[in-house]
Amino acid sequence: MKCSFFFFLLFTYNLSEGQKYMFQINDFKAFSDNVNLDGSAIIAGERLRLTADKPRQSGACWYSAKKIDFTGGFETEFTFLISSDSSKMMPGDGFAFVIQAQSPDITGGIGDDIGYKEIPYGVALEFDTKDDNEGSRNHINLSFYSPETKTYRRYATVHEIPEITDGHSHFTRIIYRDGRLQVYLDSYLFPVLSVKLDVAEKINSPDHTAWLGFTASTSDQHSYQDLLSWSIKELEVAPKDIAADSVAVKETGTIEVKSRKLTISVWDYNTIDGDIISLKLGPDWLITNYQLTGDKYVIQTTLIGFAQDLILYAHNVGMVPPNTAAISVYDGLSTQRVSLESNLESSEAIKIAFTGDREN
Questions:
Q1: Phi and psi at residue 200, in whole multiples of 5°?
Q2: Which band of pLDDT confidence, cut at 50, 70 and 90, is reported for residue 6?
Q3: Domains and CATH numbers, the chain
Q4: 312, 321 in Cβ contact below 8 A?
Q5: Three-state secondary structure along 222-249?
Q6: In Å, how far are 267, 299, 313 from 341, measured between CA atoms?
């Protein structure tokens, strides 16, 4: 699927409870101070080029502003393009999204190493474009480092994926939550891969922090391997004082949206009386333990699947019960507003349903 991006944004929600760290890059040149490049990786215009269309290269790019805290999980989305100057040359060898706790200045070998297999204690999702006795030349593969053998172990491989060397851009979304890693490729509906994996154990990171980035390589087969955009968001840890399964949830209606990229705002439209709330969309806590004010709290999020419930939970009951919140949902075309109420025993919710012209 071809994707277009029109703006550059940087979010750094990192300092207080109810706020999590997030960044989004649509122009790597404007963001060059916060990425470390190694080996053959360069910034070419607005894109990040992991390898040129040349033989025997190895490159890496790491987000270097900070280690990502994945205690509550993380989600990352990126758009990539694999292309070649020659229609006769088979592409190779591939690139990988890599999670590791060693250093933001490291890369591995060429060829089938995909630029990461010399990095100890890593988890890598390969986008492989060369068949090295693996069953196909177009597949994804999840691997992790084994300290016993000091090599990477193949954990899961998927061959039934879109053709990623067709000269068009493709997007990937990776979600790690509650010990499960899910991979979406050119679709927000169903993951192409979903596996249980203890990332902290595999990368030897007791504090649940990691450097995130990309590696790539070529051999006698080669291609341009470019990143066009990249975003990462740390996910909220579930609030300890809310037993979501024991709170009665009442759905009050449905909001239909034409885009999956949503801006959700929440504020107290009534008496400002100390209401403390959490907001959950599907399985993800968007904000936690947040005291409502008359100012809008703005959240950027992505709608996964056909529809998800947006639920308002209460941590207390303000001076004028129940807790009330105004919520607006902007899909890039229009803004829709609703109000929700909650107390300690029950919560109201609104269903957000995707009704775009093309389901993806």
A1: -60, -40
A2: very low
A3: 22-234 (2.60.120.200), 244-354 (no CATH)
A4: no
A5: CCEEEEEEEEEEECCCCCCCCCHHHCEE
A6: 12, 19, 8
